[in-house]
Design a protein that fits this description.
Distance between the termini of chain B: 45 Å
Largest interface: A-B, 50 and 37 residues
Number of strands of chain B: 0
Distance between the termini of chain A: 48 Å
Structural class of chain B: mainly alpha
Shape of chain B: flat
Structural class of chain A: alpha+beta
Helix content of chain B: over 70%
Strand content of chain A: 25-35%
Largest sheet of chain A: 6 strands, mixed
Strand content of chain B: under 5%
Radius of gyration of chain A: 26 Å
Number of helices of chain B: 7
Oligomer: heterodimer
Largest sheet of chain B: none
Chain lengths: 613, 191
């Protein structure tokens, strides 16, 4: 089995980190240029080769039409969603885009998950070079306020990069985990995460229990389209307007000139975090040199409205957590934009305390992801994350009104059951529309998926189909339906409103160069063997811990026989046979697993007789 | 699914929040999907199911209002989401006045007339109903205490049913007033 890592797939930069066993601390891994920050920029050259990171960022200046940055803004979104962004960002959208946006890079077009997958692969290669071992599993972070489609798109990107995504973890939660390890904090913590393209605020409660520390998210809020990018754009507007007024030169926002200007403005922005003033210069050829001093005061005035936009989500999260700013014990700053003094002051004023920033705000999310990856992988449970769903889940009812079935800030996994029936005689299909959001009307919320429940013809109201909506620990929706009259489990074909279907991902995987180069069967064999190893280990452990009262002699024999057969299959290279034996072992241990799970519950309840109630 | 049994608690309406939270955390350690990442698909699904039930149960019992709603639904006294939309008789007069003020406000707004005075009247009405909401909550609390006492003393079914029926009635009134207050606040905000 390969290594497991934590990845921060950011708007501006992405990072990869791992848990260093010797020091017991998470560490980031650096790339070929010695930095742990991989610019989230992807470029495709004339030969169709994909370039990622620093080299791709340089190509923003030379080949902007073949290069894309801030692709995270497009994850899980439809063409209609991004019209405003297209005015500012130089995204070249393929006219053939349907429910998934395709971006043109040179003479090919790519979906956002595919482009993100290239970034993930680059990071994966950094880690593989460092470990000299394959890396195949990862915890990937997402903004806490990402909706279902955006999360699914991130998971798809992981899959396309050849990574098993163990968990999607919310960025502020990951940061809290890294800080918790670092400082052993207790009480209520507010994580203010202002990154390159997204803003999140999470309120957590850190609790010590006899079994370990619990990081319980009480509430989260944010804006998935608010970040350092917006500050850059404000500076761009200012300078472009001045250049136009003074020199009569209009810079095309999609051209290469504007990228040169953007680069120097970002440098100016960084300088203003420490200096009181900075100089921006931009050559205009024969027309001379645009030269402009920007003072911190002027900069702060310019960005004040952007920073102010973070306050409404912060207040909302506190209200939802039923806390006041005074009840927050610690405030933590995460994300590159929190280096800006005005941002620090705003957060400090709001929470009435000096916010923490001991850990590098660029690295802390990746470090937290590595901690969580280690927790999930090692089985050593000393920390537990209880996260929440950021948005309410609802279904459309009559008149386009939403019926909320899982409220926002519910601890995940969370579920809700709804009963559906027919409205007219001989109706054979019931349409269900699932949405996410806080507004009352379906048209104002985010459409997640639509599906149809099939039922045999009959009188109206006779059908009784129970649909279970479940938000898993990644914040992703699962739907299952059951016909209560026949007890048949329905398969629900959920068509995501914005996203790739499983078939599309399979096709992309098959088409992707990396995998085409590899022998398909060899990869399948490795995967089957990995899975077999972990199942065998789990089964051995379960059998060891289960006493004679839990597992009968003949049941134990059946399980052991299945184990032996699987081990024999593993010695060969027939992945189909291995799969078959894995399934057989799974079937043989179903009863045992159920008993153990219920046993865990029983132990938990021990000492209290259920008859009392 | 009996949420009370999930937490090994009697079906009483007074719950110590710290005890409930403690149970929630302890069960989370055992059931959370993070513990089953490398387990078989069957176990992963089981953990997902049980931990979502745990979270649903905690979310429901933590809040006193959803707690009593749940108890009534669980004991089949009321169905989920059913609320009588008919005004409670003792409120009829006030509701009638309120609706008149709301109509006037809408008319005034449509005609571009003076909404300030009407707004004051509506604010007062909203406050009045808000106060009634507090009364209803107090009544609900008192019924809850009675329910717990009946539970402890092993009161007969007739007495329990009577209490449950009254709680259901109060909940209907509460939901009616709540909608009223929300509606008024929305109109005021729009004006």
């Amino acid at each position: 089995m390969g290594r497991v890592v934590g990845i921060d797939l950011g708007t501006t930069y992405s990072l990869i980190a791992y848990m260093d066993e010797q020091s017991g601390a998470p560490r980031t891994i650096s790339g070929p240029y010695g930095s742990s920050l991989c610019p989230s920029v992807v470029s495709v050259d004339a030969k169709g080769r994909v370039i990622v990171g620093e080299d791709a960022r340089n190509r923003l200046l030379t080949e902007p039409e073949r290069t894309i940055y801030s692709v995270k803004r497009l994850m899980g979104r439809g063409v209609v969603d991004i019209q405003d962004e297209l005015k500012i960002f130089p995204f070249r959208i393929d006219a053939k885009s349907d429910n998934v946006i395709r971006v043109v890079l040179g003479d090919k077009s790519f979906t956002a998950p595919e482009i993100s997958a290239y970034i993930l692969r680059e990071l994966k290669s950094w880690a593989e070079a460092y470990f000299k071992e394959p890396v195949d599993r990862a915890v990937i972070t997402v903004p806490a306020y990402f909706n279902d489609a955006q999360r699914q798109a991130t998971k798809d990107a992981g899959r396309l990069a050849g990574l098993e995504v163990l968990r999607l973890v919310n960025e502020p939660t990951a940061a809290a985990l890294a800080y918790g390890l670092h400082k052993q904090k207790r009480g209520h913590v507010a994580v203010y995460d202002f990154g390159g393209g997204t803003f999140d605020i999470s309120i957590l409660k850190l609790i010590s229990t006899t079994e370990g520390d619990i990081y319980q998210v009480l509430a989260t809020n944010g804006d998935t389209h608010l970040g350092g990018d917006d500050i850059d754009n404000a500076l761009m507007d200012l300078t472009r307007n001045e250049i136009k007024a003074k020199y009569g030169v209009e810079l095309d926002h999609r051209g290469e000139d504007v990228q040169t200007l953007r680069k120097s403005l970002i440098r100016a922005k960084h300088e203003l975090s420490t200096a009181e003033k900075t100089l921006v210069e931009y050559p205009l050829g024969a027309k001379g040199m645009y030269s402009r001093e920007i003072t911190r005061t002027e900069f702060e005035k310019l960005i004040a409205p952007i920073v102010a936009r973070t306050m409404a989500p912060a207040k909302m999260a506190l209200t939802d957590a039923k806390l006041t700013p005074k009840q927050i014990d610690e405030a933590v700053l995460v994300g590159g934009s929190t280096r800006i003094p005005l941002v620090r002051k705003t957060v400090g004023d709001f929470f009435e305390r000096v916010p923490h920033s001991e850990l590098d705000p660029d690295e802390v999310v990746a470090l937290g992801a590595a901690v969580q990856a280690d927790i999930l992988e090692s089985g050593v449970k000393t920390m537990l994350l209880l996260d929440v769903t950021p948005l309410s889940l609802g279904i459309e009812t009559m008149g386009g009104v939403i019926a909320k079935i899982i409220p926002r800030n519910s601890t995940i996994p969370a579920s809700a059951q709804e009963m559906f029936t027919t409205g007219v005689d001989n109706q054979t299909a019931i349409d269900v529309h699932v949405l996410q959001g806080e507004r009352e009307l379906a048209k104002d919320c985010r459409s997640l998926a639509r599906f149809q429940l099939k039922t045999p013809p009959g009188p109206a109201g006779l059908a009784r189909i129970e649909v279970k909506f479940l938000i898993d620990a990644n914040g992703i929706l699962q739907v299952a339906a059951k016909d209560l009259r026949t007890n048949d489990q329905h398969t629900v074909e959920v068509q995501p409103s914005y996203g790739l279907s499983d078939t599309e991902i399979e096709r992309m995987l098959e088409e992707s160069i990396d995998f085409a180069e590899q022998d398909f069967a060899a990869r399948q064999t490795i995967e089957a063997r990995t899975e077999a190893e972990s199942i065998l280990a789990a089964t051995d452990k379960a059998l060891k811990n289960a006493g004679a009262n839990v597992v009968a002699v003949d049941e134990r024999e059946t399980i052991e026989k299945s184990e032996t057969e699987l081990r024999t299959a593993m010695a060969g290279n027939d992945y189909k046979l291995m799969r078959e034996k894995i399934d057989a072992l799974n079937a043989a241990t179903e009863h045992l697993a159920e008993v153990l799970m219920n046993g865990a519950l029983q132990t938990a309840l021990k000492g209290k007789s259920l008859d009392e109630f | 699914m009996d949420y009370f049994a999930f937490f090994a608690m009697p079906r009483k309406l007074t719950i110590d929040p710290a005890a409930l939270e403690g149970q929630f955390h302890m069960l989370s350690w055992k059931l959370h999907p993070d513990n089953f990442v490398r387990a078989s698909e069957f176990e992963r699904n089981l953990s997902l199911e049980r931990s979502s039930e745990l979270n649903d149960a905690y979310r429901t019992l933590r809040d006193p209002l959803t707690r009593v709603e749940y108890l009534l639904e669980f004991l089949k006294v009321r169905k989920e989401g059913t609320t009588k939309q008919q005004a409670p008789s003792e409120l009829l007069e006030e509701v009638f006045e309120l609706n008149e003020s709301l109509d006037e406000l809408r008319d005034a707004r449509a005609a571009g007339g003076d909404v300030a005075a009407l707004r004051g009247r509506l604010d007062a009405a909203a406050q009045n109903f808000q106060a009634k909401l507090t009364e209803v909550d107090a009544e609900l609390g008192s019924l809850g205490t009675q329910w717990d006492a009946a539970f402890d003393s092993g009161a007969d079914d007739a007495k329990r049913s009577a209490l449950l029926a009254r709680m259901s009635e109060v909940l209907n009134r509460r939901s009616y007033i709540r909608n009223l207050v929300d509606g008024v606040q929305k109109e005021i905000a729009a004006a």
